[in-house]
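Final report, Chapter 2: Outcomes

The project's central promise was a pipeline that accepts a single protein chain and returns its three-dimensional structure in a standardized token representation, suitable for archiving and comparison. That pipeline is now operational. To close this chapter, we reproduce one record exactly as it appears in the project archive, with the input sequence first and the structure output second.
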Amino acid sequence: MPVNNSYKIYNASAGSGKTFKLVKEYLILLLTAQNNDAYKNILAITFTNKAVNEMKSRIVNRLIEFSDKEKINKDSAVLNVKNKAIIKEIIKETSLTVDAINIKSTQILKHLLKNYASFEISTIDKFTQRIVRSFSYELNIDAKYEVEIDEEDLLNKAVDRLISKAGEDSELTKLFIDYAFEKTDDNKNWDISLDFRKIAKILVNENSYEIIKGMQKNSIAEFLELKKYLKALRKNSIENSITYAQQAVNLIKTNGIEEKSFSRETLPNHFNKIINQNYKGIYNNQLENNLSVGHVYSSKIDQDQKKLINSIQEDLLKIYRKAKASIYKVKLYNNLLNNITPLSIINAINNELINLKEEDNSILISEFNKIINEEIKNQPAPFIYEKIGTKYKNYFIDEFQDTSNLQWENLIPLIENSLSSENASLTIAGDAKQSIYRWRGSQVKQFIELINNTNPFNIEPNVISLPNNYRSSKNIVEFNNGFFTHISPLIFNDDYFKKNYLEASQEIKQNKEGYVNIRLLNKDKNTDENQLYNDNVLEIINSCLKNGHQLKDICIITRKRKEGVIIADFLTEKGIDIISSESLLIDSSPDVRFILDTINYCLNEGVASKIEILNYLYKDNKTIELRDDFIRKFIDLNSVSFYKKLEEYGFYFEKTFLAKLSIYEAVEYIIYSFKINEQSNSYLQFFLDFTLDYSSKFQFL
């Protein structure tokens, strides 16, 4: 094993001081290095830009404070508690003196500020993109490509373009028509685009990467043959289930057993439903269990009937299970057939997607990991380092539980190469309980395996658990401890997962009591569920405000976005000020909507756009006349007279002049003409930036 190498894994629950530890480890590398530019050979990876900025600012701020002799003095009252703690740990682990840390920090800080671009703390997506750009020539990719973040929009365009080919491609046309008929036969919406858009999402999902890769060899004709084969299997399973059910019915009749002798006639009804191919809810009961223990007859049954049922009980149970196995196959084939047509055109959608990307000179953000895995990963690590211009000796990976298989596989060769040389290190931090990106391919099991028995490197890891919770109040920590201990044996089959949650208890470090409340809501079939939740949320908010909390202290989390929108709209109606992802959209800005309405009105002179313009101007103009009187003056005017009339209110705007301008200049002209920019407006600034980017991108097209 190379000298002075280290491999640490921090198993860090929420509030355990993980970032503190990572910053400390990073600073130790800087302060103990011979040169002042050690940061150039350190790569720290996390998953969000916010986390990147937080870690960068913490490191720089520590260096600034360590460079200040007054603040770094161990007796200084200026230094905050965290900085005193980090100084103590650095001194303990490195044997550096306070003066040495002060001098070294000053030198590092000067060097760092002059070479800030080499201060490499990055999101994993940004790092993978950097590698791909470095290999753009070898991959035959235009180095000026755009990164497409709105993947869903591009997928929808690919689907729409494919469907538009109906009538041109006979094979596709027949497939579309047949599928539309199948959907209507099943009483489903005939619109095939909905299914195709849903299935197209697997093209950008890392969880489906290997499956899609294998399917690329299959043609539509092969899928159609598979469809015929599945239909034949389904037909055979249906016939078998009917045969078994008929055997059961005949067995009951030939033994002289009346249907009413069975409890609520459940068993004969079960087999009659199978004969009629009515499978809905037939296994959502205890019938199989009751049949196996002999509890199937009515309480009013006579002894002769009871003996007859007992005599055929085992035969009925065997038939029941055979029929069940056949029906489960039918359900499996139905599920496969429901998806076989959308799956059959996945390659066709992918081809349209490829064409769109070529036209836009773009690469989907989800593709970078795949490109590296297929084209770059097997290159010699020194060559990859040479291409990206830096060899990293020290790696930090934060939030490791959110790393996908591809991301980890792509990093392993680079890390392995670094760890084979001296003075190299790998520091990983994660918490299996905080894995929130499984929907986009993250594999929490990777982290659990790393802290237990899996090691891809030639150096043994030092697994460090951080048991203290410095963030949460007492009752919150106690609730979590009890909750994790309770659910672990109930919901996990995997021993490693079970162990992880059983050992998740944290030590309390806050004096505040805190508060946890779980409210279970009662509802019946007549209950308006949305209103029930809305009323309870409002009641809790009012209770918090009454207890001295402020609105900024309150956060509402919902499982689905639409639920969040419903609650947000309700709270807004009740006069509660909120900030949500919807409220932060630029379209939420009245100023931006006014600009768009003005452009729409100049293009088509629509009445709806005109009314929106007048509503905006009336509200902001503070005129003393009534709104209806104000609108009535303009509503019947054509566009020329409309803008001429606005001059009476101090607004000077010429539609003909607007038509001569670029889109960016047109937006600026509207802002100037209607005096929109009198106060700073972040929505407006972002809209201008977006418009400028759009103009720059398409000015030569």
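Archive annotation: Strands lie at 6-12, 42-46, 121-123, 146-148, 362-364, 394-397, 425-430, 462-466, 468-469, 507-508.
This record, like all others produced under the grant, will remain available to the consortium after the project formally closes.
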